[in-house]
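Input record (one chain):
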Amino acid sequence: MSVPVSYVIITHNRAADLTEALQSILRQQYAPLEIVVLDNASTDETPRLFAGPFNLPNIRYLRSETNLGVSGGRNLALEHATGELLVTIDDDSILRDPDATTKMVRRLQSEPDLGVLTFRVVDYWSGELEAGAFPWKDKKRDATREFETTWFIGTGHIIPRAVYERVGLYQEYFPYGCEEIDLALRILDAGYRIRYFPQVTVHHKKVTTRHTWRTTRFQAMHLQNRVKVAIRNLPWQYVLTTDLVRSAQVVLKHSRGNLAAVLLAHWYLARQMPRLLRERKPIGRETVRRVLKLKGPVLY
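The corresponding structure, as predicted from the sequence alone:
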């Protein structure tokens, strides 16, 4: 019998996109397979989907009356999943290859220390690679070849249940952004490896958010999340380099600079520092060396 697989999707007000995502999973030529959907307080037609066309034995619909964020929503969905291998894809993404699940399962089971396979993510309409979802700093690297990396993409990945049981779920004070980096560092420190696996491609309806990136609040949130990851997981010298480099990027990379975002981020961090210090568990020296060798998120 094949290993049971659970697909986990969190959604918010994307009934049409979710419909297409679910249809693509239901076309997968793999069994046993279940789908767990966490509805993050949608106000559109989403709930009706599960009283109608997706009221199926292998689909489990969960609804939260409050938006739990990405980390909280994923955690709740993962806790209700029954599969031994847990696949996460975004609600605005699809799998066009009906054998994608079979391919990812075979590859994951081929080496016992594989902790994550992160998939190739392309634009839904153009088919072009999404650079922001490519898990390597040099975006010119060949995206058609598999390689080892140090982080994974939330848009599409597979992780064995045993890995979550060993290292824990997502930290819920990362409501949006950097939650995968935090988890990836814990996975690496537990001795697992992360592989980019382009044999599975996720077609993603990326939403343009340039106007959001310009806001002080959003820049502050992203900066404080990166520094939080460092405080929780990295030796102190790398906490310092992360803070300095990321703060400088916020000020220098934007047309008008944004010192206000840097100050706001550090105000957020000051309020959370007691908890961050209590939960701080830096990765070991060998893990640091591995991540540096693979050009991962340690120096900044």
